[in-house]
Specification:
Blueprint (H helix, E strand, L loop, with lengths): L2 H21 L2 E14 L5 E13 L2 H8 L1
Antiparallel strand pairs: 1-2
């Protein structure tokens, strides 16, 4: 890896580590994922994807208690 690629890689990691904690106000977990396919004709396939998720958001109260 030359110096420019290494610089770009490390810059990307730094930005990722700064931005990621900002976005993690909630935690999502996929519970169930189903895919249904139906062949309409020779050229068309209808695909229906259903994703069920559980999202847990942090409370503002628990965050303020942890700051004290």
């Amino acid at each position: 890896m030359n110096w420019f690629e290494r610089l770009m890689h490390n810059t990307g990691l730094m930005i990722h580590h700064v931005v990621k904690p900002i976005k993690s106000d909630s935690k999502k977990q996929v519970v169930k994922k189903t895919v249904e396919e139906e062949k309409v004709n020779d050229k068309v396939i209808l695909r229906r994807t259903t994703i069920e998720e559980v999202e847990i958001k942090r409370d503002a109260e628990s965050d303020s208690d942890n700051d004290k």
